[in-house]
Amino acid sequence: MPTPLTEDLKVDVPSVERMTRDALAGGIKGVFLAGTCGEGPWLPAIERRRLVEAVAAEANGRLEIAVQTTDNSVPRILENIHDVSEAGADYAIIAAPAVFMNATPDRMTAFFSEAVDKSCLPVGIYDLGKHRPVLIPDDRLMDVYLLPQVRFVKDSSNSPERRAIALAAREAKPTLRLFNGDEFNCFEYMEGGYNGFMFGGAVAVAPQLNQIAALFLNGRIEEAREVDAEMKRILFGIYGGTSIACWLTGLKYYMLRRGLFSTTASFLGYPLTDVCRSFIDDYAKSV
Description:
This protein has 287 residues and is α/β, with parallel strands linked by helices. The chain has helices spanning 13-25, 45-59, 74-87, 105-118, 138-145, 160-172, 186-192, 202-217, 221-239, 247-257, 274-286, and strands spanning 30-33, 64-68, 91-95, 123-127, 150-155, 177-180, 196-197.
C-alpha cells in the first residue's frame, strides 16, 4: 500500500484509517506496509510505527499485516522487526539491503539466515532480483526460502530462473506462499502456480485482479487476458505511461480523488502530468 503523508511528510493517520476501511470493504485479506510503494526505506522509524499502529487499530484483527523491515545490518533489521511487532504487525518482510559491502554469496546467505532465524515474527522474503545492487544468489535462494520462519515470498524479480526456484521451494515446503510482485507480468506467475498478487498498484485495480484470478481459475483464459490488458491500461494511465513518469504521485492522486488521501505528498517527488491527472480524474469517477 502507498503511505498517506501530510505536507510535512508525517504519516496522515485519518487517511490511513480511510485506506484501511476501504481495503476491508473490498474484501482484502492482508496488506503490505512500508514497502517500496509505501516509502518504507524513507520513513523515519517513528512514522513507520505510527503507520502500523493506525492500520492495526482500524483493522482490529481483520487483516494480516506485513511490514518491510529491511536494513543494512542484521541488528538493525531485528530492531525494526521488534518495533513493528509491538505496533501490531503479523509478519516482517526482508529484502536485500540497499548498501552491503563485500557481498559474497556466503555473506549474503548468512545475512538473511541470521535475520530470519532471530526474528520475533514470521518472515516474508521480498525478492527484487537484479533491481537491487546485491541479491541472494540463485544457488542459495532455495536455502533461504526453506528456513522455518519464512512463510511467503514476494517475487518482483521478473526472473524465470528465480521463479522456478521459488516454485521448487514450495514443492519442498507446501506451506510456503508465493506472491507475484510484478503487476505487468501476471500471467507467467499465475500459470506457474503462484498463490496471488502483492504490489502497490493493487489499491487501484483490486476489482480487476479479483476478476482475473476468478476467470483464470475457472479456465476462462482468454477472458482473463482481456481483463489483464485492461488492468495494464489503467495502471499505465495512473503511472504516467510506459515510462512510469508519474508513478507514486499518480497513485496517491488516485487515492486523493477517491477521498481516501488528503495529499499527494511523498519523499520521492514524482511529477503529475496533465495527461496523467486527466486520466485519473476520469477513472476515479468510474470506481
